[in-house]
Protein 1
Amino acid sequence: MTTPLLDVQDLRTVFDTKEGTVKAVDGVSFQLEAGETLGIVGESGCGKSVTALSIMRLQRPGRIVSGKVQLKGRDITKVSDAEMREIRGQEIAMIFQDPMTSMNPVLRVGFQIEEAMAAHRRFTGQQARDRVVPMLQRVRIPAAKERIKDFPHQFSGGMRQRAMIAMGVSNEPSLLIADEPTTALDVTVQASIIELLRDISRELRAAVILITHNMALVASLCNRVIVMYAGRIVEQGPTRAIFKNPQHPYTWSLLRSMPRMDEVGKERLVSIRGVPPDLGKLPTGCKFHPRCRFKVDRCLTEEPPLAEVDPEQLARCWVLMKNVPNPEMQS
Amino acid sequence: MLDPTSLPEIELPGSPFEGDTSRPAQSFWNESWERLRANRIGVAAGVLILILALIAIAAPIFSLVLTHFDPTRQHLIDNFRPPGHPYLLGTDELGRDTLTRLIYGGRVTLGVASLTVVLSLTLGTTVGLLAGYYGRWLDDLLMRIVDVFLAIPAIFLFILMSILFRPNAFTLAAIIASVGWGGVARLVRGEVLSVKQRDFILATRSVGAKDLRLIVRHLLPNVLPILIVAASLGVGQIILIEAALDFLGLGIQPPTPSWGNMLTNAESYFFHSGWLVVFPGVTIFITVLASNLFGNAVRDAFDPRLK
């Protein structure tokens, strides 16, 4: 078996607060093959972004307390800060949620893209300068030659996100982490950004981790999905399987809470009761049980393991949706 | 009835097409500069300061062409001459020409003021950036040092320093700056703490930028506006401090003229030869007023927190 591009094992990231230690990421493990697209979904505050930041070691003020993050077989939680800087941008690049605030307002867009390359040695200064316009053209910014002299506030939100993508891929990384890349954007430009992300990752043969709470995005873009809840993976598997046969009640509820083109009029939309738990005061047993419609006594006391329910599909549940007859009736 | 033809034509907003490049590049700096230029009082004050500075720089030319006197040359026969000819603004008790001394005094006063600003901004900014960016123990250490400096009663420090170092323009600037940098450091640190939280710093880190690059290229330009404001508002205050020290004999020593030390002796002759007090006093007053007005205008134009 070949080594995967990224192998995360039992990653735990905590934040020290006045109320005590908060486990934002609690034992997350997954693998990612080269060129693969993985979706990480879940509600706000369930640890998606912290997982991504921990992979880049940008989780400060949080601390990675245990676990391995192996990139091409090298554990990058152990490398020096200087080596980590070389990995950021060159091996792993990140695209952030809000393009409005992710660019430095006082520096010209062209300069900021050039800077992403200048921070590394893959390109010489001259090469970096020459690559700025083609990079912007590649992300389909019209009149790129003139626009490199613009400041970020002269770009629209969609254009800024394109520029951020250009910045991210300028060093041709093998892994691109997109943290809710379309959440802050107008619905009309979301599709074009996603399309761009897909095309450019294919061109570069880069793997993508797409963090989102938009299930539709996952369906259209990802090979595999990880569903997170309260800092844990609760379900994981191929996109098709997850959408067709969600086994964890949380995944099932997420899917029931949004309209689906392929099942028009069949089912009513169902909301998930309550809010995600406070990570400082987690419930006992299964962390989802206070909101779960299908819980049994065991869920209150004992946390289920992430177990195989199908080849390739894992779920962290004592009940499993396949064992619930007529789930719609119970909601 | 509403006649559709009588309705005024509605101008549709320009095409929202993403690639519209018709607007000229308007940076923060351009905008601020435009705002500053629109402020008439501010511009007038700025021009006045510029003129004073030019006169001070060109002092030898002025004394050669306009006043024909040397600032330290005594004309004992002509002491206490009222303003007139050939002493345009009169003479002092040793027969030295007041106008010439004012012009040369401007060199000292404005020179010390600018040097002080440069020194305290450089030190304060460096300390503020380091403390704000690295945080933790370095922040604690540097800020406690700042607290110590800010807690020292300035006037005693001035007296002590003046005794230890014979004051000239450079030591005087260093002395005043040693008191002023603490405030700048606090200001910069506070701004860095807020800028540091912004997403673009994280984004810049995510492309693998080094600390030095982050501090110099990303944090510094973002604190520059408040530095400009601090500098322009500080000048007036520094001129006053400098004049006060000179007046008390703790600053620039005679016979080198400064606006402050010209007042030292003049005070004894206030009723006898009032111009000796009035001219340096008014010069200081106008300069400080212009500095403050200009400083306010700069703040209105540049301070990002006012927007």
Note: Confidence is low (pLDDT under 50) at residues 1-22 of chain B.
Protein 2
Amino acid sequence: MVRILGFFVGLGFVGVAAWSLLWGVIAVSQDGLPHTVEHDFHAEPRDIEFSFAGPLGRFDRQQLQRGFQVYRDVCASCHGLGLVAFRNLHDLGYTEAEVRAIASQWPIQVPSINPATGEPATRAAIPSDRFPSPYANEVAARAANNNALPPDLSLITKAREGGPAYIASLLTGYTDAAAYRNANGDALPTENRPGQGLHFNPYFANLNIAMPPPITADNQVSYAPNNPPATREQMAEDIAAFLHWAAEPSQDQRKDMGIVALIFLIVATTFAYFSYRNIWATAKRTVRPIGVLDPENMARNEAANGDAGVAG
Amino acid sequence: MSFPWAEQYKQKHPFMRWLDSRLPLPRLVYNATGKGYPVPRNLNYFWNFGVLAGLALVIQLVTGIVLAMHYNSNADTAFASVEHIMRDVNGGWFLRYLHANGASFFFVVVYLHIFRGLYYCSYKAPREMVWMLGLVIFLLMMATAFMGYVLPWGQMSFWASKVITGLFGAIPIVGEPIQHWLLGGFAPDQATLTRFFSLHYLLPFVIAGVIILHIWALHIPGSGNPTGVDVKGPQDTVPFHPYYTAKDGFGAGISMILLAILVFFMPNYLGHADNYIPANPLSTPAHIVPDWYFWPFYAILRAFTVDFILEAKLWGVLAMFSSILLLFFLPWLDKSPVRSGSYRPTFRIFFWVLMADIAVLGFCGGRPAEEPYVMISQIGTMYYFAHFLIILPLLSMVEKTRHLPNSISESVLHGEEAEAAPAGLQPAPAA
């Protein structure tokens, strides 16, 4: 009975799925596979080798400091970093005093209240404060940016496919829509070119981004003498590295711990394997040698193998 | 336990005798994991995954309980509290990454456990209850994992909760009231988040309870084995401890290495980038996808695109739920007297086609709902239902199976009787 009912239920689902498939095939044979301009012109992030790539890669503190400089001089005027506190800058190699100075001299002050009157006020930041947002609220942010909302950057490398490589590619990816050719050599259709207040960037998901090019010239941020030259690409990679630290500050600690954990687990698993083999040595079909762990038992096993006529 | 060849619990130490006559805890442990629970001696590594699933549940419980001490189930602060765990709680990143990837680990081992059951037909008599209780655990796991995914209150959390509860909205007449009742409102909001947190904390303990029933039901007939031949006597078995505890220890080591690689070196590999964006009811993500372990079912849901008597959406919902519920009837759909797929040459081919089919469905479920993925999932859906409801019942009537070994010992021994008994056990009496 179950099988008869099941047979008809099965036929029902198979039939309706086949019916859907038929209409799908008809639609595709008439219109072809769906094809979007975004699909044709969207570019994958550039292949950038960051210092923190792979299990052994770690943050380069000097690069993070340069990236922080780019954030402070370029990004911070529009983008918040609300999940990161000034005190976290210790990770970048700044001293206590330097962190305090960075906080107190931060161009945007922290919301506060006037202790005498209770009126809203602002004060200079201290290390325990998080980076203050450049805008009081979303309405203010949109009003200042042509109705676009500059996202908070605290998690941006984890919140975008491609991570830091995407950020670096995007920042240097601005190009002239009219002159751009994709991999097939096609020009961008006129109706997809950026409208008022938008900028063409093939790395952006829908090709036209509201953010104007933030990094426009070499040496826009002046790096300290013993650093690499501040080319556009270098600045873009440095800010991407800094933002990846901001999104994943515990990364170095995590990888260090991972290597210790793996060594421990591999040793423990090796012991578990040999004890498994040891316990099962005589339980299965042949008398198995158990390795170098127990020479006495080995000799006994060899003797048993000899008696049983099994080649050791 | 009830096997005639099981050793009876005998304790010499007066204290243990005293305890056993008042609270038979030592007897329970002995009968569940010691010589009182003889296990077929020929189990392969696919029999490790039950214990590994238990290990996964323990990892989820321990990490989850500590995470709940720091998490805040308020729609305004949930996202920030998760980041607080990641940044400011000591070892918080480890707890959260272990919990998030531990869920994937749980599903990996449970899927392998289920596939083992499908290949060796572990669902057949006398283990139908074991199979059905296992499916109950699987359904509870899916509910728990889905609600856990909502808790960080990121973009995917919010929109997944909207889509999944929206499935109930496809039911005629009562669908929409049910959806509103589940959400506690017209859209996912504070009420949804709080109740999901409460249930996400509750359900793992329900799972633990059903696991006790699952193991209890297993210990009545005892474990199956790769030949599918019943245990005939003590020569076919070894005590669970130390033989299978040792083997499970090795399996646990290997699986912890794989989990550690995921947690420490690629913790976000299985996640979705959009869930690091705070939930925003006004901005729909380009593609709403659940976590990978739901992808095959998501593909089945989206395979029904054309109305046929019922609405297409309702067909999808019915098919998705049926794709799991039909497994409850498997013991009565597949009537072949031979259990193990190793002795069923035709069944084995269809089994591997099913595995490939589920992999293809999984791939399509993770892609956007556009051609050609929809057409591929339609073909995959057709095979999925045909396999269980049409092919298996017919196959079990016509298939010519291979010759079964007379006993488990025969299958492993090939006649070397002198070596049959494991160390420390009496040699088998000559048959």
Note: The first strand of chain B starts at residue 38 and ends at 40.
